[in-house]
Amino acid sequence: MSNHDDVHETPSTTPNLKTELARQLQELVPEAIADGKVDIVKLKELLGDDAGSDTERFGLFWPGKKAALRAAQEPTTATLRPDRGNSKDWDTTQNVFIEGDNLEVLKVLQKHYHGKIKMIYIDPPYNTGKDFVYPDNYKEGLETYLEWTRQVNEKGKKVSTNSESEGRYHSNWLNMMYPRLRLAHDLLSNEGVIFISIDDHEYDNLKKLCDIVFGEVNYLNTFVWVSNLKGRQISASGAAGTKEYILCYAHRGDEVDEFRASSAHLKALMPTVYKGFNYTAQSDDRGRYVLKNELHNTNSAFNEVTRPNLVFDIYYNPMTAEVKTAPVSDEHIYGEFVKIAPKRNNNGINRYHAFRWSARKVESESYNLAFIESSSGWKVYTKVRDVDSAVVKDIVMDISTNEGSADIEKLGLDPKWFDYPKPVNLVNLLVEAATDEDSIVLDFFAGSGTTAHAVMKCNAEDAGARRFILVQLPEPLAEGHEARSAGHSSISDVAVARIHAAATSIEKQRAGRIDEDGLADHGVRVYKLSDTNFSKWRVLSDVELDALEQHFLDLRDSSVLNASADALLAEVLLKLGYSLTEKVAAEEIDGLPIQSVGNGLLLAYLDERTKPTLEQLRAVVDVGPGKFIILEDAFHGDDELKTNLAQLCKSKGIELWTA
C-alpha cells in the first residue's frame, strides 16, 4: 500500500484540552517533561516558592468538582447541522444561533473561535430551587444530550431537578457552571471580558468560581443593577430586595480599556449614572482627545507583588516621541530617553505602584499617552479619544425588570412567551462599553435572545458590524404555553422568533436612513447540535464490545449516514478550524459537484457514492484551491487513485484533506 504522507486527515473530535495543556507546558518548561509525561515533582521544584502547599491552601471545593473539570476537558465528536429553514440571509449574515447543550457547543467552537470572542454575556439559571434542564451526566456528554432531546421530543419532560432540599444544592449548580466557564475562558480574546448576571443565591459562590477560572487579578467589576425599586420580599425576614448583580472578569485585565458609553439614549436614560468630561479637548494627528488619568495607579494594593507585569520603567524620547519599556532598574538604560520609573508608595511598605497599562500596551499604543514635564518631573497621562462619551459606573439604575417584557411587546410578540427577559438597554449598555465595532459577542445561555437584539441595536446606533453567537438548549415549553399556539415547542424556538422580530423592527426603524456601506446585518444562521455525520467517528473510547462490533458493521456500508452536503461540509469546516459563517457556493467542475468555500480558497467533493475519475480530479486541482477536501469513501478503496491525487495536489502546492 502506498504511503500517503501528503494527505491530511480531518480530526474526528474537538481538541483534547488536557493534551494541549501538556504540550504548552513542554514548550514553556521542557525540563518538567519526562518520558512524555509531566513530572509534577520537578514542576513544583522549578516553581519554588510560587508553588502552593499540598496541605494548606485556600480555594473553593465542592463535591463533583473534578468530574466537572473532566467534562470540560473531554473531547467531543459533536457537530452542528445547518438549519436553513429557520435562518435568515444565510449566504450573507455573520450572526449565529445554535440550538444545543452549551457544554458541547462550547467545545465545538474552540477550534475556530479560540481567543477571538471580545465579549461574553450570560444570564445563567439563578439556582432558586427550580428545575435544572442541563444534562449533568459528565461521563457521556453528547450521548446524554441526544438521549435528553429524544425524551423531550417524545414525552416533553425535563430530566434533572435541583430543589433546595437536595443535599448538593449548591454543588449541582457549580458543577453545571464550572466546565462551561472553563471553556468560555478559552474563547475570550486577550482584551475580552465576560459579564455574568446573578442574584443573591449564588453570588458568593460564583465570585469564588470566577476567581478560579479567570484569576483574581482579572476581576474588573461587580455591577449592581437596581432592577426593582419597589422591592421584592426574598424571604420572610430582612429587607426587600431591589437589585441583581453582573459580575465582570477579563481574560487579561491589563489589556482592557476603560468602559465607556456614548449613545445619547443611554446617557439620557441614566443621568444619575453618567457624567461627561469637563476637560478641554485637544487634538493630535489621530484626532480629538481629552487627558484623563495619570498612567500610574494610585492604589498601593496594585504593586510589584500583586501585579508584577504592570511594574516597569518607561523611557520617553522628547525629540522623537519614541517610547520604550524595561524592567525596573537603578540603571538608566537608554541614554537619550527620559526615564519614568514607577512611583514608590508612602505607607511604610517599600513597594512600587503599578502602572494601569502593561509594558506591551505602553509601547504599542504610545500614541494614546501624553508625556508632560512638570516641576516635579515627567508625568504620563492617558488620552481618551471619544470625547463625547462618559465613563460607565458600576451601578445601573432607571432600567427596570419590566422593561424586558415591554421590549418584547414593542416587537409585536406576546410577552407571556418569555420568562423574565433581560431589558435590551441593560445588555446594550454592556455591549457598547466593552466591544469594538467589529467584535464578536457570545451568549451561551441565550434565553429570550436579548443579547442578539442588543447587538443589532448597538450596530444600528453606531453603524457597527458586531456579530453575535447565541446558544440555547431546546428546553421544552410547558403544555398550554402561549407560544405553542404559534407553533413553537421550545425556548430556542421563541428565541429565534424574537431575533427575527427584532431584526424586522430595526430594519423598519432604519427605513429612510442612509446606510453608507449597505452592509447592515439583520440575518442569522441557525444550527442544531447533533452527533457526527461520520459513522467512523461515532464511537466512545469505553464503548461496549457488542456496540463496537455493530459500529464496524456500519462501516461496511458507509462512513456517512445519509447526511446532506451542507451538513457534511459544516462538520468538516468546523473540525478544520473554519468559522460558522464561511461563504459557500455550489459549483460543478468537469461533472463533479463541488462545494467552494471562501471564493475558491477551499474546494470539497463530498459525494461518497460516485467515484471520481483521475481526469475529473485533475480538473479540480487545476482550479488551484489552497485546500481540497474529499471523502475517504469517494475513492471506493482505490488506493492508486488516492496516491495520484496526492501527487497532483503536491505538485500544485495544494493541501489534500480526507474525511
UniProtKB/TrEMBL annotation:
<protein>
    <submittedName>
        <fullName>Site-specific DNA-methyltransferase</fullName>
        <ecNumber>2.1.1.-</ecNumber>
    </submittedName>
</protein>
<dbReference type="GO" id="GO:0008168">
    <property type="term" value="F:methyltransferase activity"/>
</dbReference>
<dbReference type="GO" id="GO:0032259">
    <property type="term" value="P:methylation"/>
</dbReference>
<keyword id="KW-0489">Methyltransferase</keyword>
<dbReference type="InterPro" id="IPR029063">
    <property type="entry name" value="SAM-dependent_MTases_sf"/>
</dbReference>
<dbReference type="Pfam" id="PF01555">
    <property type="entry name" value="N6_N4_Mtase"/>
</dbReference>
<dbReference type="InterPro" id="IPR002941">
    <property type="entry name" value="DNA_methylase_N4/N6"/>
</dbReference>
<keyword id="KW-0949">S-adenosyl-L-methionine</keyword>
<dbReference type="InterPro" id="IPR002295">
    <property type="entry name" value="N4/N6-MTase_EcoPI_Mod-like"/>
</dbReference>
<comment type="similarity">
    <text>Belongs to the N(4)/N(6)-methyltransferase family.</text>
</comment>
<keyword id="KW-0808">Transferase</keyword>
<dbReference type="InterPro" id="IPR002052">
    <property type="entry name" value="DNA_methylase_N6_adenine_CS"/>
</dbReference>
<feature type="domain" description="DNA methylase N-4/N-6">
    <location>
        <begin position="117"/>
        <end position="461"/>
    </location>
</feature>
